[in-house]
Amino acid sequence: xxxxxxxxxKFLFSSFNISSAQNTRDTILREFRSGSSRELVTTYLLARGxxxxxxxxxxxxxxxxxxxNYLHRTGCSGRFVRKGxxxxxxxxxxxxxxxxxxxxxTLVIEELPANVADLL
Length: 120
Description:
Layout: E1 14-16, H1 22-34, E2 40-42, E3 57-60, H2 70-74, E4 85-88, H3 95-104
Parallel strand pairs: 1-2, 3-4
C-alpha cells in the first residue's frame, strides 16, 4: 500500500480458509495468539471462538447472516475490557441485516469517517 507521500507500507500477515488443513489453521492461530503473527486474514471460520485479547481491528468483508453472530465475529462479546474498531463493508442489499444487527445487539453502527486514522 502506498501513502500519498510515496511511503510504502509492508504488512506481513497470516491467513487461512476452509480449504486449509486443520493443523495449518491451528499453527496459524497459535502464532497469532502469541503475537508472532500480528495480522490474520480469515473467513467466517472464526466467527466464534477466536478469543484473542489483542484484537483491536476487525474488518468484515460481509455481514454475518445471523444478527447474534455479529458481536462474536467482531470480538466485542464482553469477555475482554478493550476498545476496538469493527469496519463493515456494506452494500445497499445489506441494509436490512445491518438494521437487524443493530436492533438485536442494541448498538449503533456508525458510518466510517473520512479520516480513518482518527479511529486507530
